[in-house]
Structures are given as structure tokens and as C-alpha cells.
Specification:
The structure holds two protein chains of two kinds.
Chain A lengths: L1 H21 L13 H4 L1 H14 L4 H9 L1 H22 L19 H23 L8 H18 L2 H7 L2 H24 L20 H32 L9
Helix pairs in contact in A: 4-5, 4-10, 5-9, 5-10, 6-7, 7-8, 7-10, 9-10
Chain B lengths: L1 H24 L3 H27 L6 H34 L23
């Protein structure tokens, strides 16, 4: 009975979706130069003037980290809040919780751990590459942070969570999650101290050594906030994995 | 040159096809994983080799050497990770008690799961 009912609901939602996308007159055509997104003077400005404003060839990163710095900063805050919320809901103290999963006497498999030993450093270097190359090619703090977090999760899967926590402890993860936002907001505040708006990095060329022009200061400011984003994303990813895979006990695990 | 590229890629696709057939048709978990792991690795490396040769079709300049190194790294990591992940799946299957199907012409039973919880 419930299955049939669910089937009817799914079918009707499908019909609704089909109706929604079949009404193609509402949308502009593919690559239409007169569509609102393309015709807006803002898009034209980003395409032509990003390189003059900030020396950053990848305009997506420039829009994300500079023109819309607020948006990205609060995105990072959202990720931080997600991690803290999961921590607050799931975490239980070690003493009064039932033991679940994971038998400690299991040796971690030799083949898997050897491969992970080879791979984890490469993954982490690649994460840093993705982070540092976010200006001139696809990449940036979020992507690099997820890759970096995955490398710690890989350690936790191949050995067990305690080994991974020995590398990157729970306290360190929470502290790094907060530190990332402090780095991001710190760059914003640093530009305020020189009399500019919050997150207007151009002025920080007076602060950063070896940076002459405001354009290069924007370039390095974006790199700085991306580093902050990476700190937060890495530690929140690892924290969420650790909490959910052990039902909040943060030890033993799978 | 183009012939070599097509040969490599088609060879890779044939191995892929073999892997898919094995994955779908083999009788039990272990033989299926065997087919998937073996064929996957070899065919991916063959196809990537085809890409490398195609990249050098117009003479090798600095950019194509760059691409060569990148593709070689991808091939290396696939060679490392694909058999390892197959091994990990096999190990997990063995530890959770999936019985291999042994051909003794009596039992036609498929995968038999023993809940060997520890």
C-alpha cells in the first residue's frame, strides 16, 4: 500500500518536473548573448577588467574571493557551523556510551596501508597545489580543503580513526576550523586598519612585504583567504567523518 | 600514428568490455571482483597510452611533454590504487563471510551470506 502511494507521489513529482523543464520558452537559449546573465554590464566588467583589477587570470576565483568576498566568507562560516552543529548533536562522552563497531584486535591490512603510505603524501601535495593554483586554473580553498580532508579520512579508513587522530587530533581539528575563519576575517580586518572597506584587500600592499601594487595585493589577499577556507574545510571534513563513523565516540570506529 | 592511437584505444575498450561481461556474468563475488579489477587497470592504462601517442601526433613540443608526464602520473596512480581497492573489497567480503562458489556439481546456490558478526 505504502509502496503504491509512494509510486504515485514520485510519478506526480516527475510529471511536475517534466512540465517545469518542458516549458522552455521561459529560459534563454544556450549561449544566448542577450540573456540576462550575459547582457548584464556586470558580467562584461568581470570578463574585461578582472585581470586589470587583480592580476588574477581565473576570473571565477576573482569573483568568488574578491568581488564577492563577503559571500565566500559566510560560506566558510556555514561550513564551520555545520561541523560544530554535528559535533554538538552527535558527540557523546567516552565513558557512558555503548561500545559499537570496530574490533581493536584487527590488524590493519598490509597491502592497503602500504598503498596509503605511498598515496597520502601525494594527495596532500596535490591539495596544496590545487589551493595555490586557484588563481590561474580551476581550484581554490574549498577544493583543496576537501582533497586534504580526504587524505586524513583515507588514513582513518586504512588504519583506524585513532591513528588518524594521532596525526590530526580532535582538538586541533576544531581549532583549525576556527583558525580558518580568523585568517579570512583577519585579511578583511587588516584592510580596515588601513582605512579601506572590510575585505578590500587592495590596500594591504602597505602591509605585505615585497608587494608594490594594490593589484598584486589583491592577488595575495585572495591566496590568503583561500588558505583560510582550506583550514576550515579540511578540519570540518575530517571532523564530520570522525563523528559520523563512530556515532560520536571519536575512537575505534569502522 | 593515428593507427597506433586507434589500436591502443580499441584494445583498451575490448578489455573493458571483457571486464564488464565478467562483472555481470561470473558466478560469485570473488570472480566478479577479479574480472573488474584486472580488466579495469589494464584497459585504463591502454587508453591513457593512446592519449599519450595522440598527444605526440604533431611532434613533441614542451606542452605535450607536460601532458605526457601528467598522464603518466594518472596511469601510475591507477596502477597503484585499482588493484588495492579490489583487494580491499575482496578482504571486506571475505571478512563478512561471503562464501566463494566452489564447483562441485551439487549446489547451485549463489552467494551465501553468513552473518559472522564479531
Amino acid at each position: 500500500m505504502m509502496k503504491k502511494l509512494a509510486g504515485i507521489v514520485v510519478f506526480m513529482v516527475g510529471l511536475l518536473l517534466f512540465y517545469g523543464v518542458s516549458n522552455v520558452d521561459d529560459f534563454p537559449g544556450w549561449g544566448d548573448p542577450d540573456s540576462p546573465a550575459n547582457a548584464s554590464p556586470l558580467s562584461q566588467y568581470f570578463i574585461t577588467d578582472t585581470i586589470k583589477d587583480s592580476e588574477v587570470p581565473n576570473m571565477v576565483t576573482a569573483v568568488l574571493a574578491d568581488y564577492r568576498g563577503y559571500d565566500t566568507m559566510f560560506e566558510t562560516v556555514v561550513i564551520f557551523i555545520a561541523g560544530i552543529a554535528i559535533f554538538a548533536v552527535v558527540r557523546v562522552s567516552r565513558n557512558n556510551s555503548p561500545v559499537c563497531g570496530g574490533n581493536k584486535d584487527d590488524e590493519p591490512d598490509l597491502i592497503i596501508t602500504t598503498t596509503c603510505r605511498l598515496l597520502v603524501p601525494v594527495i596532500q601535495i596535490f591539495a596544496l597545489y590545487v589551493l595555490a593554483h586557484g588563481h590561474s586554473s580551476p581550484g581554490g580553498g574549498f577544493q583543496g580543503g576537501v582533497i586534504m580532508g580526504a587524505s586524513f579520512i583515507l588514513v582513518a579508513v586504512a588504519w583506524d580513526l585513532d591513528t588518524a587522530l594521532g596525526r590530526f587530533s580532535e582538538k586541533a581539528a576544531i581549532a583549525c576550523a576556527g583558525l580558518g575563519i580568523i585568517i579570512y576575517a583577519g585579511f578583511g580586518l587588516a584592510s580596515m586598519f588601513y582605512g579601506e572597506e572590510f575585505l578590500n584587500y587592495g590596500i594591504t600592499h602597505k602591509l605585505l612585504p615585497g608587494v608594490e601594487s594594490p593589484e598584486m595585493a589583491r592577488y595575495y589577499g585572495m591566496l590568503g583567504v583561500e588558505v583560510g577556507v582550506m583550514f576550515t574545510v579540511t578540519s570540518v571534513m575530517f571532523l564530520i567523518y570522525g563523528l559520523l563513523s563512530t556515532r560520536g565516540r571519536m575512537s575505534g570506529g569502522l | 600514428m593515428n593507427l597506433l592511437v586507434v589500436t591502443l584505444i580499441v584494445l583498451g575498450l575490448i578489455f573493458f568490455f571483457g571486464g564488464v561481461v565478467g562483472l555481470l556474468r561470473f558466478p560469485d563475488f570473488y570472480t566478479r571482483m577479479h574480472a573488474a579489477g584486472k580488466a579495469d587497470t589494464l584497459s585504463t592504462i591502454l587508453i591513457l597510452g593512446g592519449f599519450i601517442v595522440y598527444n605526440f601526433a604533431e611532434g613533441g613540443d614542451a606542452a605535450s611533454w607536460n601532458v605526457l608526464v601528467k598522464i603518466a602520473f594518472i596511469a601510475l596512480f591507477i596502477m597503484l590504487t585499482s588493484p588495492t581497492s579490489t583487494h580491499a573489497l575482496m578482504q571486506a567480503g571475505f571478512e563478512s563471510g561471503i562464501e566463494p562458489e566452489i564447483d562441485d556439481d551439487e549446489s547451485e546456490s549463489t552467494q551465501e551470506k553468513k552473518g559472522r558478526d564479531s
